[in-house]
Write a structure and sequence with these properties.
Number of strands: 21
Strand content: 15-25%
Distance between the termini: 20 Å
Structural class: alpha+beta
Oligomer: single chain
CATH topology of one domain: Glucose Permease (Domain IIA)
Radius of gyration: 29 Å
CATH architecture of one domain: Distorted Sandwich
CATH superfamily of one domain: Glucose Permease (Domain IIA)
Shape: globular
Length: 633
C-alpha cells in the first residue's frame, strides 16, 4: 500500500459513504476504520470495496467498518485533514466512558503523569527546607535558603506552565501557544492586578481577578478550548497567513477569555463556599470543621481554596488566629497517610516510588500535590478514604476550638502554630484519627495493583531461558538464501484455524496468515522480539515488528473494540522494545464473555505477502511461549 495516497483514499472513502454530512463519528482500531453513518443506504459499499488500499467492508455492531490493514492510522489521519473527523491521537478509540467525575479524574491524572517525578522531588526539597527553618538549621533570610526555596517553589508556582505542555499533548494543541496562554496567567503584572484591590476591566468589561499561580483547572480548561479554536482557525484561514495568524488570534482570544470566564466563575464559587463555611462555624463548629477537613483537598483540586486565603489573612490580622485553618491539618495529613498505605500495599515499585516521597513531603511540608495527582486521585479509593479521615479529624479539631496563629502549610512541622489557641490535645486527637482512618481504610480496602515486572513486560515465567524457542532471533535453515524465525503462541489455549474464526476479514486471510487461540488465562505475551509499532488505547490489539522485519498483529478477542477498553490493560507502550515472552497485556475473559464477545485471540503476520511463507506449526493445545508459526523470510 506504499503507493497509495492516504489523503486521497480517505477522501474517496468519505465520498463512498455518503460524504461528511452522513458521518456521525469515526474511530479506528488496529486494522479498520470504524464509521458511524446517519444512513447506511447512502453508502456505496461496492465502490468503497474497489478502492485501492481497501481490503474489505463489514457492517457490525452498528458500525460501517472499512478494513485497511496496518496503514489504517495514516488513512485515519488523512480523514482528519479533509473533515472534522480523524483529528484525535491515532492510537485512540472512542473517548473513555464512565461517569463524568471518573472521566475527569482520568484526564487530570493523565495530564499530571509526565511531571509527577519533578513534583515529588520539588516537594521533598520543600520538606527538607521546612525542617531546616523549624529546627533552626537555616534562617529564611539566608541567601542559600532563598535560592533553594526558589528551586523548590518554582514548579508549584509556575504549575500552569507545565500543565500547559501536558494538556496540549492531551488535547492536540500547539504546546508553545498553550505555554504562552499559561505564561500570561502567571505574568507578574496580571498577578499585581489581582492583588492591587482596584477595579479591573478589559475593553470596558469588568474583570474579576484571581491568583492563577499553582492553579490547575483554569489552564486545563483554557487549553481544551484552545484546541477547538485552533482547529477552526487552521481550517478557515488562508494558507498564506495561517501559520502566524493562528497562534496570534489564539493567544489574543484565549487569554482575555480565560480571565473573563474562569477567574470570575472560580472566584464566585470559592467566595460563596468560604462564606458559607464561615457562617456555619458560628452555630455548628463541628459541621464546619467536618466540611473543611473533608473537602479541603477537593477545594484545592478545583482552585476554590483561593477564596479562603483572604479570610485566613483577615482573621490572623484582626484576632491573631484563624479557626478555619485548624481542620486543614487533619485534611492534609489524612491524604499523606493514605499515600503511606499505598506505598506499603502496592506491588508496583513505580507507584511506590511516587507514594513514599510524596507522603514524606505531605507530612513534613504539607505539600500534597505529587501524591494527590500521582497516587490518591488516580487510584480513587485512597483519595476518598483521605476525605473520610479529614472529615472526622476536622470535626474533632473544630469542636476543641483549635486555630492557627500563623499562615502556614498544614504539616507536622507546622504544629507549633496550632499549639496556642484552643484545645491542642483535641487537635492532636483529631489529626491522629484522620491519619488512622485514612491509613487503615486504604491499607485494607485499597487497590493492590500489578507488580511492575508484569506491567513493563518483563518475563516472570519460571525457567523462561529453557523455553524450546525464544522467537527472537533468525535461525539458519538449509539453503544459502533461506532464513526463518519462530513466532511463539501469545496465550495458552486451544488453537483454531484462522479460516474458522468468527471474523470474516481475519478468516479470509486478507490480514495475513496466522492462527487463532482460545485463551485459558488472562495474560497475553509477545510472540516475537522487536519494537511495538501499535498499541490500541482500548488495550485489545498490538502490532510488533521483529528485527528481521516480520510484522505480527496480536488481536485479543473478536470485535472487542466495542468494549472500549473495559477488561483490558496494556503492559507496553508504542515504540517500546519487547522480548519474546514479555507480557503484552492482560484481559478479563469473564468481562468479555459477559459483554457477549468471543475471547479468541488472533495472531497474524500482517506482511505475509512480502515473506516466503508463514506456516502454522502448533496444533491442538499450545502453551504461551511455545512455537506457533514458522516464518520463512
Amino acid at each position: 500500500m506504499a503507493s497509495v495516497n492516504y489523503t486521497t483514499l480517505a477522501a474517496d472513502i468519505l465520498k463512498g459513504v455518503g460524504g461528511e454530512h452522513n458521518l456521525v463519528g469515526a474511530t479506528h482500531c488496529a486494522t479498520r476504520l470504524r464509521l458511524r453513518l446517519r444512513d447506511e443506504a447512502k453508502a456505496d459499499t461496492a465502490a468503497v470495496e474497489k478502492l485501492p488500499g481497501v481490503i474489505a467492508v463489514m457492517k457490525a455492531g452498528g458500525q460501517y467498518q472499512v478494513v485497511i490493514g496496518n496503514d489504517v492510522p495514516v488513512v485515519f489521519a488523512g480523514l482528519g485533514k479533509i473533515s472534522r473527523f480523524g483529528n484525535e491521537d491515532t492510537t485512540h478509540e472512542a473517548p473513555p466512558e464512565g461517569n463524568l467525575f471518573n472521566r475527569f479524574i482520568e484526564m487530570v491524572s493523565a495530564i499530571f503523569s509526565p511531571i509527577l517525578w519533578p513534583l515529588a522531588g520539588a516537594g521533598l526539597l520543600k520538606a527538607f527546607l521546612s525542617m531546616g527553618t523549624t529546627f533552626g538549621w537555616v534562617a529564611p533570610t539566608n541567601q542559600t535558603y532563598v535560592i533553594l526555596s526558589a528551586a523548590a517553589d518554582a514548579l508549584f508556582y509556575f504549575l500552569p506552565m507545565f500543565l500547559a505542555v501536558t494538556a496540549a499533548r492531551r488535547f492536540k494543541t500547539n504546546q508553545f501557544t498553550s505555554m504562552a496562554i499559561a505564561g500570561a496567567l502567571v505574568y507578574p503584572s496580571i498577578i499585581a492586578l489581582g492583588t492591587a484591590g482596584q477595579p479591573v476591566d478589559f475593553a470596558g468589561i469588568p474583570l474579576v481577578m484571581m491568583n492563577y499561580t499553582s492553579s490547575v483547572i483554569p489552564i486545563i480548561v483554557a487549553v481544551w478550548l484552545q484546541g477547538y479554536l485552533e482547529r477552526f482557525l487552521l481550517k478557515s484561514l488562508p494558507s498564506a497567513v495561517r501559520n502566524f495568524l493562528t497562534p496570534l488570534l489564539t493567544i489574543a482570544i484565549m487569554v482575555p477569555l480565560t480571565l473573563l470566564t474562569v477567574g470570575p466563575a472560580t472566584t464566585f464559587v470559592s467566595q460563596g463556599v468560604s462564606s458559607g463555611i464561615t457562617s456555619i462555624f458560628s452555630f455548628a463548629p463541628w459541621l464546619a470543621g467536618a466540611v473543611m477537613g473533608g473537602l479541603w483537598q477537593v477545594f484545592v483540586l478545583f482552585g476554590l481554596h483561593w477564596g479562603f486565603v483572604p479570610i485566613f489573612t483577615n482573621d490572623l490580622a484582626t484576632t491573631g488566629h484563624s479557626l478555619l485553618m485548624a481542620p486543614l491539618l487533619p485534611a492534609v495529613l489524612a491524604q499523606a497517610a493514605a499515600m503511606v498505605a499505598v506505598a506499603l500495599r502496592t506491588r508496583s515499585a513505580a507507584r511506590r516510588g511516587v507514594a513514599a516521597p510524596a507522603a514524606l513531603s505531605g507530612f513534613l511540608a504539607g505539600v500534597t500535590e505529587p501524591g494527590i495527582y500521582g497516587v490518591n486521585l488516580p487510584l480513587k479509593k485512597p483519595f476518598y478514604f483521605g476525605i473520610a479521615g479529614g472529615t472526622v479529624g476536622g470535626a474533632i479539631a473544630a469542636v476543641g476550638g483549635s486555630a492557627s496563629s500563623a499562615f502556614v502549610f498544614p504539616s507536622v512541622l507546622a504544629l507549633p502554630a496550632f499549639a496556642t489557641v484552643g484545645n491542642f490535645a483535641l487537635l492532636l486527637v483529631g489529626t491522629a484519627a484522620a491519619i488512622l482512618i485514612a491509613f487503615i481504610l486504604t491499607f485494607v480496602f485499597g487497590p493492590r495493583e500489578t507488580a511492575d515486572a508484569d506491567k513493563n513486560g518483563a518475563d516472570t515465567r519460571p525457567d523462561a531461558e529453557d523455553s524450546p524457542a525464544t522467537g527472537h532471533t533468525a535461525s539458519s535453515t538449509p539453503g544459502p538464501a533461506l532464513r526463518s524465525i519462530t513466532v511463539l503462541a501469545p496465550v495458552t489455549g486451544a488453537t483454531v484455524a484462522l479460516a474458522d474464526v468468527q471474523d470474516r476479514v481475519f478468516a479470509s486471510g486478507a490480514m495475513g496468515a496466522g492462527v487463532g487461540i482460545v485463551p485459558e488465562e488472562d495474560r497475553v505475551y509477545s510472540p516475537i522480539s522487536g519494537t511495538v509499532q501499535a498499541v490500541m488505547k482500548t488495550g485489545h490489539a498490538y502490532g510488533i515488528k521483529s528485527d528481521e522485519g516480520v510484522e505480527v498483529l496480536v488481536h485479543i478477542g473478536i470485535d472487542t473494540v466495542q468494549m472500549k477498553g473495559d477488561g483490558f490493560e496494556a503492559a507496553v507502550t508504542r515504540g517500546q522494545r519487547v522480548e519474546a515472552g514479555a507480557l503484552l497485556a492482560t484481559m478479563d475473559r469473564a468481562k468479555i464473555r459477559a459483554a457477549g464477545y468471543d475471547s479468541t485471540t488472533l495472531m497474524v503476520v500482517t506482511n505475509t505477502k512480502a515473506l516466503t511463507a508463514v506456516i502454522p506449526v502448533g496444533e491442538g493445545h499450545l502453551t504461551h511461549g511455545t512455537p506457533a508459526l514458522d516464518v520463512e523470510l
